[in-house]
């Protein structure tokens, strides 16, 4: 994440339920009701902030979104994934690798914020 921030010139934060390593502390902070911990009641998401003149801010935000999408949106044509699907189909004795386009039980949410100065 630090590399992405340096490369894109933005600030990124992972927020929401599950964003803290210490789950007990997260639950304690969520129940505290403090405004700065309100995000812990929301789904896991990424906050992207840009502080720059308008043209530059839009450019940085666009670049950051393109880079972060690589981690949030699965690439169905990824070679490693295709190989794993082939191995799975062999193990299961069926041809599941030809379908390969369903993700079960996953939802993604992206939140972005641009502050233009």
What does this structure look like?
This protein is of the alpha/beta class. The chain is 43% helix and 15% strand. The strands form two sheets. A three-stranded mixed beta sheet has the order 1-2-4. Strands 3-5 form a two-stranded parallel ribbon. InterPro entries: BBP-like, KH_dom_type_1_sf.
What percent of residues are in strands? 5-15%
What's the overall average pLDDT, rounded? 81
Distance between the termini: 24 Å
The rough form would be described as flat
| Cα gyration radius (Å) | 19 Å
Order of strands in the sheet with the most strands? Answer: 1-2-4
Computed structural class: alpha/beta
Biggest beta sheet summary: 3 strands, mixed
Helix percentage range: 40-55%
Order of helices and strands: HEHEEHHEE
DSSP summary: helix tally: 4
Protein name: KH domain-containing, RNA-binding, signal transduction-associated protein 2
Organism: Characodon lateralis
Region (Disordered): 1-29, 91-117
InterPro entries: BBP-like, KH_dom_type_1_sf
Task: Draw up the topology in text.
Layout lengths: L1 H7 L2 E5 L7 H10 L12 E5 L1 E2 L1 H19 L6 H14 L17 E3 L2 E2 L1
Parallel strand pairs: 2-4, 3-5
Antiparallel strand pairs: 1-2
Keywords summarizing the entry:
single chain, about 120 residues, alpha/beta, two-stranded parallel sheet, 4 helices, about 45% helix
What's the short version?
This protein has 117 residues and is an alpha/beta fold. Helix content is 43%, strand content 15%. The strands form two sheets. It has a three-stranded mixed beta sheet with strand order 1-2-4. A two-stranded parallel ribbon has the order 3-5.
């Amino acid at each position: 994440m630090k590399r992405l921030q340096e490369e894109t010139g933005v600030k990124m934060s992972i927020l929401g339920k599950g964003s803290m390593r210490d789950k007990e502390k997260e639950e304690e902070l969520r129940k505290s009701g403090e405004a700065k911990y309100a995000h812990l009641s929301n789904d896991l998401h990424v906050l992207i902030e840009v502080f720059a003149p308008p043209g530059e801010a839009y450019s940085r935000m666009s670049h950051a979104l393109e880079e972060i999408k690589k981690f949030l949106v699965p690439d169905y044509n990824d070679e490693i994934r295709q190989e794993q699907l082939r191995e799975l189909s062999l193990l299961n004795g069926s041809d599941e690798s030809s379908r390969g386009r369903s993700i079960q039980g996953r939802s993604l949410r992206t939140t972005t914020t641009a502050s233009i100065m």
